[in-house]
Amino acid sequence: MINIFVFLAFFPSLNSFLVLTTAPQYDESKAREFWYYQVMSECNLDRIQNWNVAPVSSLYPNITEIHIIHNYTQTGANLAYLAYNSQTNLVFLSVRGSHNSTNDWEDADFLKTDYEKCNGCAVHNGFYHAYLDLKDQILELFVNLNKKYPSAQTAIFGHSLGGAIATFAFIDLLEMMKIDFFYSYGSPRVGNENFAKFCNGKLGNSKTARITHFKDNVPHLPFTFLGFQHINGEIFYSNEESSQYMVCQKEGEDPKCSIQFNFINTDGGDHGKYMNFSMNDFTPACQ
Protein backbone atom coordinates (compact mmCIF):
# COMPACT_ATOMS: atom_id res chain seq x y z
CA MET A 1 0.00 0.00 0.00
CA ILE A 2 1.00 3.62 -0.48
CA ASN A 3 1.47 5.50 2.75
CA ILE A 4 0.04 9.03 3.14
CA PHE A 5 2.78 11.49 4.01
CA VAL A 6 2.85 14.80 5.80
CA PHE A 7 3.45 16.37 2.41
CA LEU A 8 0.05 15.69 0.91
CA ALA A 9 1.25 15.29 -2.62
CA PHE A 10 2.57 11.96 -1.37
CA PHE A 11 1.87 12.13 1.19
CA PRO A 12 -16.37 -11.65 -0.79
CA SER A 13 -19.74 -10.32 -2.02
CA LEU A 14 -20.09 -12.59 -5.07
CA ASN A 15 -22.87 -10.74 -6.86
CA SER A 16 -22.20 -7.11 -7.65
CA PHE A 17 -24.93 -5.03 -9.16
CA LEU A 18 -23.75 -3.47 -12.40
CA VAL A 19 -24.92 0.14 -12.36
CA LEU A 20 -23.69 1.07 -15.83
CA THR A 21 -21.94 -0.94 -18.46
CA THR A 22 -20.45 -0.45 -21.88
CA ALA A 23 -17.34 -2.48 -21.09
CA PRO A 24 -18.15 -6.20 -21.23
CA GLN A 25 -14.41 -6.93 -21.04
CA TYR A 26 -14.48 -6.40 -17.27
CA ASP A 27 -14.59 -9.80 -15.60
CA GLU A 28 -15.44 -9.45 -11.93
CA SER A 29 -14.71 -13.08 -11.17
CA LYS A 30 -11.20 -12.56 -12.52
CA ALA A 31 -10.87 -9.32 -10.55
CA ARG A 32 -11.71 -11.23 -7.38
CA GLU A 33 -9.29 -14.06 -8.21
CA PHE A 34 -6.49 -11.62 -8.98
CA TRP A 35 -7.12 -9.70 -5.76
CA TYR A 36 -6.65 -12.89 -3.73
CA TYR A 37 -3.35 -13.50 -5.50
CA GLN A 38 -2.47 -9.87 -4.85
CA VAL A 39 -2.88 -10.03 -1.08
CA MET A 40 -0.46 -12.97 -1.05
CA SER A 41 2.25 -10.58 -2.22
CA GLU A 42 2.18 -9.02 1.26
CA CYS A 43 3.27 -12.28 2.89
CA ASN A 44 6.73 -13.41 3.92
CA LEU A 45 8.74 -14.86 1.08
CA ASP A 46 8.57 -18.45 2.33
CA ARG A 47 4.80 -18.26 2.76
CA ILE A 48 4.40 -17.11 -0.84
CA GLN A 49 6.81 -19.74 -2.11
CA ASN A 50 5.10 -22.56 -0.20
CA TRP A 51 1.61 -21.26 -1.01
CA ASN A 52 0.21 -22.27 2.32
CA VAL A 53 -1.87 -19.37 3.65
CA ALA A 54 -5.64 -19.77 3.94
CA PRO A 55 -8.01 -18.75 2.54
CA VAL A 56 -6.03 -17.95 -0.61
CA SER A 57 -4.21 -21.28 -0.85
CA SER A 58 -7.40 -23.22 -0.18
CA LEU A 59 -9.42 -21.26 -2.75
CA TYR A 60 -6.69 -21.54 -5.37
CA PRO A 61 -4.64 -24.64 -4.57
CA ASN A 62 -3.20 -25.32 -8.03
CA ILE A 63 -0.54 -22.61 -8.04
CA THR A 64 2.88 -23.73 -9.25
CA GLU A 65 6.00 -22.26 -10.86
CA ILE A 66 6.24 -19.56 -8.20
CA HIS A 67 9.11 -17.14 -8.84
CA ILE A 68 9.68 -14.30 -6.37
CA ILE A 69 11.53 -11.14 -7.34
CA HIS A 70 12.68 -9.13 -4.37
CA ASN A 71 14.94 -6.10 -4.58
CA TYR A 72 16.10 -4.04 -1.64
CA THR A 73 17.83 -0.67 -1.97
CA GLN A 74 18.22 2.39 0.23
CA THR A 75 15.23 3.99 -1.42
CA GLY A 76 12.85 1.07 -1.76
CA ALA A 77 12.03 -2.55 -1.11
CA ASN A 78 10.05 -3.92 -4.02
CA LEU A 79 8.57 -7.33 -4.58
CA ALA A 80 6.72 -9.13 -7.32
CA TYR A 81 6.01 -12.77 -7.93
CA LEU A 82 5.07 -14.79 -10.97
CA ALA A 83 3.20 -18.08 -10.94
CA TYR A 84 1.10 -20.49 -12.96
CA ASN A 85 -2.39 -21.73 -12.14
CA SER A 86 -2.57 -25.19 -13.67
CA GLN A 87 -6.31 -25.46 -13.15
CA THR A 88 -7.22 -22.30 -15.06
CA ASN A 89 -4.14 -22.34 -17.33
CA LEU A 90 -3.06 -18.83 -16.32
CA VAL A 91 0.39 -17.27 -16.07
CA PHE A 92 0.32 -14.19 -13.86
CA LEU A 93 2.45 -11.42 -12.38
CA SER A 94 1.48 -9.82 -9.07
CA VAL A 95 3.31 -6.67 -7.93
CA ARG A 96 3.29 -5.73 -4.25
CA GLY A 97 2.40 -2.21 -3.15
CA SER A 98 4.21 -0.10 -0.59
CA HIS A 99 5.11 -2.45 2.21
CA ASN A 100 7.35 -0.59 4.64
CA SER A 101 8.98 2.75 5.33
CA THR A 102 11.64 2.30 2.65
CA ASN A 103 8.91 2.53 0.00
CA ASP A 104 8.05 6.00 1.31
CA TRP A 105 11.01 7.36 -0.64
CA GLU A 106 9.58 5.99 -3.88
CA ASP A 107 6.07 7.25 -3.13
CA ALA A 108 7.31 10.71 -2.18
CA ASP A 109 9.61 11.08 -5.19
CA PHE A 110 6.87 12.61 -7.32
CA LEU A 111 9.09 14.72 -9.56
CA LYS A 112 8.70 13.60 -13.16
CA THR A 113 11.24 11.87 -15.36
CA ASP A 114 11.15 11.42 -19.13
CA TYR A 115 9.59 8.24 -20.47
CA GLU A 116 11.33 7.45 -23.72
CA LYS A 117 8.68 5.27 -25.34
CA CYS A 118 6.55 8.25 -26.33
CA ASN A 119 7.02 11.91 -27.20
CA GLY A 120 6.34 14.34 -24.38
CA CYS A 121 5.74 11.56 -21.87
CA ALA A 122 6.85 12.04 -18.29
CA VAL A 123 6.24 9.73 -15.34
CA HIS A 124 6.54 9.68 -11.57
CA ASN A 125 10.24 9.29 -10.84
CA GLY A 126 9.83 7.06 -7.78
CA PHE A 127 7.38 4.68 -9.42
CA TYR A 128 9.46 4.36 -12.55
CA HIS A 129 12.69 3.61 -10.73
CA ALA A 130 10.85 1.11 -8.54
CA TYR A 131 9.90 -0.65 -11.76
CA LEU A 132 13.42 -0.49 -13.12
CA ASP A 133 14.64 -2.26 -9.96
CA LEU A 134 12.52 -5.27 -10.99
CA LYS A 135 12.25 -4.88 -14.75
CA ASP A 136 14.87 -7.29 -16.06
CA GLN A 137 13.76 -10.18 -13.87
CA ILE A 138 10.08 -9.54 -14.55
CA LEU A 139 10.53 -9.58 -18.31
CA GLU A 140 12.80 -12.62 -18.35
CA LEU A 141 10.66 -14.74 -16.05
CA PHE A 142 7.35 -13.78 -17.65
CA VAL A 143 8.64 -14.51 -21.14
CA ASN A 144 10.02 -17.87 -19.99
CA LEU A 145 6.74 -18.90 -18.34
CA ASN A 146 4.83 -17.83 -21.43
CA LYS A 147 7.09 -20.01 -23.57
CA LYS A 148 6.68 -22.94 -21.19
CA TYR A 149 2.87 -22.63 -21.22
CA PRO A 150 2.14 -21.16 -24.67
CA SER A 151 -1.59 -21.88 -24.48
CA ALA A 152 -2.00 -20.16 -21.11
CA GLN A 153 -3.76 -16.86 -20.62
CA THR A 154 -1.62 -14.08 -19.17
CA ALA A 155 -2.42 -11.54 -16.46
CA ILE A 156 -0.60 -8.61 -14.87
CA PHE A 157 -1.90 -6.84 -11.80
CA GLY A 158 -0.80 -4.80 -8.81
CA HIS A 159 -2.10 -2.82 -5.87
CA SER A 160 -1.23 0.80 -5.07
CA LEU A 161 2.47 1.37 -5.83
CA GLY A 162 2.32 -2.12 -7.34
CA GLY A 163 -0.38 -0.92 -9.72
CA ALA A 164 1.96 1.79 -10.97
CA ILE A 165 4.82 -0.69 -11.41
CA ALA A 166 2.45 -3.13 -13.14
CA THR A 167 1.54 -0.39 -15.63
CA PHE A 168 5.14 -0.15 -16.81
CA ALA A 169 5.47 -3.94 -16.90
CA PHE A 170 2.28 -4.23 -18.95
CA ILE A 171 3.59 -1.80 -21.58
CA ASP A 172 6.92 -3.60 -21.92
CA LEU A 173 5.50 -7.12 -21.96
CA LEU A 174 2.79 -6.16 -24.43
CA GLU A 175 5.57 -5.49 -26.93
CA MET A 176 6.65 -9.13 -26.59
CA MET A 177 3.40 -11.07 -26.34
CA LYS A 178 -0.33 -10.92 -25.90
CA ILE A 179 -1.46 -9.90 -22.40
CA ASP A 180 -5.00 -11.06 -21.71
CA PHE A 181 -5.65 -9.18 -18.46
CA PHE A 182 -4.21 -5.99 -16.96
CA TYR A 183 -5.93 -5.06 -13.69
CA SER A 184 -4.88 -2.61 -10.99
CA TYR A 185 -6.32 -1.93 -7.54
CA GLY A 186 -6.11 1.49 -5.94
CA SER A 187 -3.43 2.65 -8.35
CA PRO A 188 -2.12 6.21 -8.10
CA ARG A 189 -1.70 8.40 -11.15
CA VAL A 190 1.47 7.29 -12.93
CA GLY A 191 2.38 9.99 -15.44
CA ASN A 192 1.38 13.09 -17.33
CA GLU A 193 -1.35 13.54 -19.95
CA ASN A 194 0.84 12.34 -22.82
CA PHE A 195 1.75 9.20 -20.90
CA ALA A 196 -1.92 8.54 -20.09
CA LYS A 197 -2.82 8.90 -23.77
CA PHE A 198 0.02 6.58 -24.74
CA CYS A 199 -1.19 3.94 -22.28
CA ASN A 200 -4.79 4.35 -23.40
CA GLY A 201 -3.70 3.46 -26.90
CA LYS A 202 -2.39 0.14 -25.59
CA LEU A 203 -5.35 -0.86 -23.44
CA GLY A 204 -7.59 -2.08 -26.24
CA ASN A 205 -5.32 -5.06 -26.83
CA SER A 206 -6.18 -6.57 -23.43
CA LYS A 207 -9.00 -6.87 -20.93
CA THR A 208 -8.17 -4.05 -18.55
CA ALA A 209 -9.57 -2.50 -15.40
CA ARG A 210 -8.29 0.27 -13.13
CA ILE A 211 -10.30 -0.71 -10.08
CA THR A 212 -11.05 1.83 -7.35
CA HIS A 213 -12.87 1.28 -4.08
CA PHE A 214 -15.23 3.89 -2.67
CA LYS A 215 -13.25 6.59 -0.78
CA ASP A 216 -9.78 5.11 -1.29
CA ASN A 217 -7.38 8.05 -1.05
CA VAL A 218 -4.51 6.74 -3.18
CA PRO A 219 -6.22 7.08 -6.61
CA HIS A 220 -6.33 10.84 -5.86
CA LEU A 221 -2.51 10.97 -5.80
CA PRO A 222 -0.31 12.50 -7.11
CA PHE A 223 -2.63 15.47 -7.53
CA THR A 224 -3.67 16.67 -10.97
CA PHE A 225 -2.33 20.16 -10.27
CA LEU A 226 1.13 18.54 -10.29
CA GLY A 227 0.52 17.50 -13.89
CA PHE A 228 -0.53 13.85 -13.41
CA GLN A 229 -3.44 12.13 -15.12
CA HIS A 230 -5.04 8.70 -14.76
CA ILE A 231 -5.26 6.19 -17.56
CA ASN A 232 -8.69 5.04 -18.75
CA GLY A 233 -10.63 2.00 -17.66
CA GLU A 234 -11.80 2.87 -14.16
CA ILE A 235 -14.14 0.39 -12.49
CA PHE A 236 -15.53 2.12 -9.40
CA TYR A 237 -16.94 0.16 -6.46
CA SER A 238 -19.33 2.61 -4.91
CA ASN A 239 -19.82 1.27 -1.38
CA GLU A 240 -17.80 -0.17 1.48
CA GLU A 241 -18.77 -3.79 0.90
CA SER A 242 -18.03 -3.69 -2.85
CA SER A 243 -21.49 -4.97 -3.70
CA GLN A 244 -22.01 -2.62 -6.66
CA TYR A 245 -19.80 -1.03 -9.24
CA MET A 246 -19.84 1.39 -12.15
CA VAL A 247 -18.01 1.10 -15.43
CA CYS A 248 -16.80 4.69 -15.59
CA GLN A 249 -17.45 6.46 -18.86
CA LYS A 250 -15.37 9.61 -19.03
CA GLU A 251 -11.80 9.23 -20.24
CA GLY A 252 -9.28 9.21 -17.41
CA GLU A 253 -11.49 10.32 -14.54
CA ASP A 254 -15.26 10.23 -14.47
CA PRO A 255 -16.79 12.76 -12.02
CA LYS A 256 -19.35 10.10 -11.08
CA CYS A 257 -16.60 7.71 -9.95
CA SER A 258 -13.82 7.91 -7.35
CA ILE A 259 -12.90 11.51 -8.16
CA GLN A 260 -16.33 12.61 -6.89
CA PHE A 261 -14.84 12.62 -3.39
CA ASN A 262 -12.68 15.52 -2.30
CA PHE A 263 -9.31 14.28 -1.06
CA ILE A 264 -9.99 15.50 2.48
CA ASN A 265 -13.08 13.27 2.54
CA THR A 266 -11.28 10.13 1.43
CA ASP A 267 -10.49 7.20 3.69
CA GLY A 268 -7.22 5.26 3.88
CA GLY A 269 -9.15 2.30 5.25
CA ASP A 270 -10.73 1.76 1.84
CA HIS A 271 -7.30 1.39 0.27
CA GLY A 272 -6.54 -2.02 1.73
CA LYS A 273 -9.96 -3.57 1.21
CA TYR A 274 -10.97 -4.56 -2.30
CA MET A 275 -13.56 -7.09 -3.44
CA ASN A 276 -14.78 -7.12 0.19
CA PHE A 277 -11.58 -8.87 1.29
CA SER A 278 -9.25 -6.93 3.54
CA MET A 279 -5.52 -7.08 2.92
CA ASN A 280 -4.95 -5.58 6.35
CA ASP A 281 -6.88 -8.36 8.07
CA PHE A 282 -5.21 -11.07 6.02
CA THR A 283 -1.53 -10.20 6.19
CA PRO A 284 -0.90 -10.73 9.94
CA ALA A 285 -1.57 -14.44 9.36
CA CYS A 286 1.24 -14.77 6.83
CA GLN A 287 4.11 -12.86 8.40
Description:
By secondary structure, the chain is an alpha/beta fold. It has a single domain, classed as 3-Layer(aba) Sandwich (Rossmann fold). The chain is built from eight helices and 13 strands. The strands form three sheets. Strands 1-11-10-9-8-7-4-3-2 form a nine-stranded mixed beta sheet, sandwiched between helices. The chain has a two-stranded antiparallel sheet with strand order 5-6. Strands 12-13 form a two-stranded antiparallel ribbon. Strand 8, helix 7 and strand 9 form a beta-alpha-beta unit. Helix 5 packs across helix 6.
State the separation between the terminal residues, measured CA to CA: 16 Å
Oligomer: single chain
How many whole angstroms does the radius of gyration measure? Answer: 17 Å
Question: Could you say what the CATH topology is called?
Answer: Rossmann fold
Mean pLDDT across all amino acids:
88
Structural category is alpha/beta
Low-confidence residue ranges: 4-24
Q: Considering the protein shown, what is the CATH homologous superfamily? A: Alpha/Beta hydrolase fold, catalytic domain
Determine and state the CATH class. Answer: Alpha Beta
- Name given to the CATH architecture: 3-Layer(aba) Sandwich
Alpha plus pi helix count: 8
Number of strands: 13
Biggest pleated sheet = 9 strands, mixed
| Envelope shape | globular
Q: Helix proportion of residues, in percent? A: 25-40%
- Give, in spatial order, the strands making up the sheet with the most strands: 1-11-10-9-8-7-4-3-2
- Bin the strand percentage: 15-25%
Work out the count of structural domains: 1
